[in-house]
Amino acid sequence: MTYPFKKRLRHLAQQKWLKMAFFLFVVKPTVLVALGLNVINRQALPSKGPAILAANHSSHLDTLVLMSLYPLSQLHRVRPVAAADYFMKNKWIAWFSIHCLDIIPIARDGKLPREQLLAGCYQALADQQIIVFFPEGTRSLTQQREFKLKRGIYYLTQHCPTTQVFPIILHGLDKALPKGEALLVPFNCDVIVGEALAFNDDVTAYLAELRQRYSALLSLRMTGHSD
């Protein structure tokens, strides 16, 4: 969608306030009241970009919980990458996804060449933003498993070499809001933030290191849900 310059500025300002209001009045109270959240190594979270929060993915809560860790004053810098086929599937969900979450939609149908597919992410990183990215590409039903990582995280850091990538393990959120369910169940959950991952030009080695980081972070979880 193309906006004249002034209209574009007005749109961005409205979007910023809608996003802040949604997190202030809905997301943060929900996370505070319904989830007993243990955040380990929170201080490692980047305060500015270009950076990627590279987390495992098991629940729609994942994105909201990660974004809720940021103060409202920094929230405009944090943008989730989300499946276009789900978050843009009708005009109501698309409006909410764009105005309240400020998503970077990404197509999953395999029809676009890589550079076009990741163009929104490249631009966000070039704009010094922090993106929420799930290297597995989709939600998984369990968390104690072999992490099946796609190459997208590698291509993003290869294209934007100054980007810092922070591995993050989310544990228990699949119990609070399982895949396919709409009712939130109160549950204690963990967010374990790892230190920045150095880029390796060897994609196999890079993904293996990220997978190893996930396993190490998972061992630090405080909650004891059986998976």
What's the arrangement of secondary structure elements?
Layout: H1 5-34, E1 35-40, E2 51-55, H2 61-68, E3 78-83, H3 84-87, H4 91-101, E4 104-106, H5 114-117, H6 119-126, E5 130-133, H7 152-159, E6 164-171, H8 173-176, E7 187-193, H9 203-218
Give the percentage of residues in beta strands.
Answer: 15-25%
Number of helices: 9
Structural class: alpha/beta
Based on the coordinates given, report the CATH architecture.
3-Layer(aba) Sandwich
Q: What is the first-to-last residue Cα distance?
A: 43 Å
Q: State the helicity in percent bands.
A: 40-55%
Question: How many domains would you count in the coordinates?
Answer: 1
What is the strand tally?
7
CATH topology: Glycerol-3-phosphate (1)-acyltransferase
Large-scale geometry: globular
Strand arrangement in the largest pleated sheet: 1-7-6-2-5-3-4
Instruction: Tell me the CATH superfamily.
Output: Glycerol-3-phosphate (1)-acyltransferase
Q: Strand-and-helix sequence, N→C?
A: HEEHEHHEHHEHEHEH
Give the C-alpha Rg.
Answer: 17 Å
CATH C-level: Alpha Beta
**Mean pLDDT over the residues:** 87
What can be said about the biggest beta sheet? 7 strands, mixed
